[in-house]
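User: Show me a protein chain along with its predicted structure.
Assistant: Here is one chain, sequence first, then structure tokens.
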Amino acid sequence: MIASHPPSGPRMPRSGPQRRGGRGNHFDSAFELQQAPAAKGDTVRLDAVRDPARPADIHRIRQGDPLGLGHAVLCARHHVGDQPFAVLLGDDPIDPRGTLPSRMLQVRERYAGSVVALMEVDPARIHLYGCAAVEPAGEDGVVRVTGLVEKPAPGIAPSRYAVLGRHVLNPAVFGVLERTAPGRGGEIQPTDALQDLAADGTVHGVVLDGPRHDTGDKADSVRTVVRPACARPGLGPEFADWPREFVAGLEEGAAGSRGRRRAA
């Protein structure tokens, strides 16, 4: 999702490879779902069904070919115009109760330029991410990005800071993306363009201060469902008992298995 905020109000182009329209339809009005709560006068459920269609003027853009995230961003250029905009990757969920989005906007307001979200990771896993070379910016949790490397080979990463799927970008990035040649895997990545912008000192990073999950990892994709479910009002208190009971049952079963092996 690429979100821009021109003076006329929020406008959210969605750019990606050509697929079925399910994600776009999620933000459309679902009259068949609204009929039953409307007939019952159930305004709470009616508002819950209507809310996804309300946040902004949604534009869907077909990427056509899977040429990388940078290419997808470039596809949205004419919808974004010359306004700063946000790139939000749906497979990189971050706890909405955290302060990361507001901190990124504050840093953008102070320094202008572009802002990326960063997370410290184990050096053994840094090759799975874009990696930022950084230097202090004079405030806690904020760094100046001096360079970026897309998925560096083990041992040559410039830091432990991985680039997450949250960017607030200066529209100047479009011009850089246009002249950026495809890199690793034949794809154009935003890190390639940000590398050029970082040379001018106009890219900053904000370090994540809360939970984050990676739906590309099988185990973490399950945690992505369980953690929000436990925190959700009206569901969490009831649901949270089940994981505790399930884990307790696994531990009891493992203990019983060990006891049977010792007896044998």
